[in-house]
Amino acid sequence: MTRLTGRALRLTVFLGESDTWHHKPLYSEIVHRAHAAGLAGASVFRGIEGFGASSLIHTARLLSLSEDLPIAVVIVDTEPRVRAFLPQLDDIVTEGLVTLEDCEVIRYAGRGDDPGTTDTKGKKWL
User: Fold this and answer.
1) What pLDDT, in 10s, does the model give residues 94-111?
2) How far apart are CA 80 and CA 83, in angstroms?
């Protein structure tokens, strides 16, 4: 398992639910590429309403059902690993927004990890 604590970089890719890469959802391709690159993790979040560069509002409200709701793919890992992954996005993200933000990882643990792990400040987590 990847160990990740302290300073990190958060990569967020904002795109539309209907965006595809080779006939499959683009968000899924990004997650699979992140996994293959050995990044610490990736999560996909589906928005209920939003707009982007096109200025079209996409919403999940019943009267105006959208098939292109906002999607955010969030990846957190060390700065060198995230920056090394960016060229893979250049090939597949043609529309949308890609952002990078500094962050601090307080706890990164999977199922079955030791529950007595300490964080970056020496505090014991139960």
Assistant:
1) 999 999 999 999 988 877
2) 5
DSSP helix/strand/coil, 102: strand
* C-alpha separations of 81 from 2, 5, 52, 62 in Å: 12, 14, 28, 41
pLDDT digits (tens, 9 = 90+) for 38-52: 999 999 999 887 777
Domain carrying residue 32? 6-102
Which of these, 42, 37, 8, 41, lies nearest to 27 by C-alpha position?
Answer: 42
Which helix (H) or strand (E) covers residue 114, if one does?
none
The whole-angstrom separation of Cα 97 and Cα 14 is 5
Report the domain count for the chain: 1
User: CATH code at 97?
Assistant: 3.30.70.120
